Amino acid sequence: MAKWGEGDPRWIVEQRADATNVNNWHWTERDASNWSSEKLKSLLLAIRAENAEGTCEVTEVSKLDGEASINNRKGKLIFFYEWNIKLTWTGTSNTGVKYKGYVEIPNLSDENDVDEIEISVSLAKDEPDTNLLALMKHEGVNQISSALETYISTLKTEFTQGMILPTVNGEQSELPPQPVRKAEERKTTEPVAGNALKSKSIGVKIPTCKINLKDVFLTSPDELYRVFITQEMVQAFTHSPAFLEADKGGKFQLLDGSVTGEFTELVPEKQIAMKWRFKTWPEGHFATITLTFIDKAGETEIRLEGRGIPANEEERTREGWQRYYFEGIKQTFGYGARLF
User: Fold this and answer.
1) Which of 49, 67, 68 is nearest to 59 (CA)?
2) For the chain, how many structural domains are there in total?
3) CATH code of the domain in which 311 resides
């Protein structure tokens, strides 16, 4: 126990303006309910079984009650999820006759293994007997079990990224660092890719516009700067795979390739400038995005300036940055603050 007035170094979080959970000592929790709800719906609505008798498919998630969360205590992740699910399935015989039925999953929880989860399949009231019921009870149930297993696995891998964050030295402790090649090495090994952005010809001049955004985050400029250039942290707040080379001239790819670009300037704690594009933009066209970080005594104001954005993409780009970047970061890392 520390002497009176000295302070225990394990509680260094109390001495930080950004309240970072240093060394993962304190109990932190992330609500996974909304993410789980969307993930379960997407997995279950993809169920489709087929044989010589016809096809069966899940057509509606009619009930999805429950919650899910992840807790981090001293670097150990503790998972909690509990769901009561009811599905509607439709069978279509090879002669075109349709049947309706239900699937009930009353006990999807962390207390049960996947093979212990109860999955009950039935026909709707007054529906005549059909061999499609057997198809749904066998192949359909197998696919549902596989979907639930995928949900649990993804919850424990994809959604947990970024939960175990800084150590006392400000380094990542959750995943081994990704190798980052120096700019000189990249020029040697990738001469074509390195010049791709410069040599691309747009072909047709398009009308462009400028956007400005600003927001406030309850963290330090240093921590917020790291969020934008650390691969694991970007994957955490976008909930999708990402690739980044965090140095000047380094390439990046986010949101499963929907966003690509190149860092043109990196000034720690101060500014990030980049060439940035949506994949649906005219080929070879990049906007210039500049993020400026301003210390506001315990908070950080971020100012975004975007130039060269296709005029017809102005609102989409503005909303994308606000939703997938700013709001995503706040929700994932707890940096929520008032909006301007």
Assistant:
1) 49
2) 2
3) 3.30.530.20
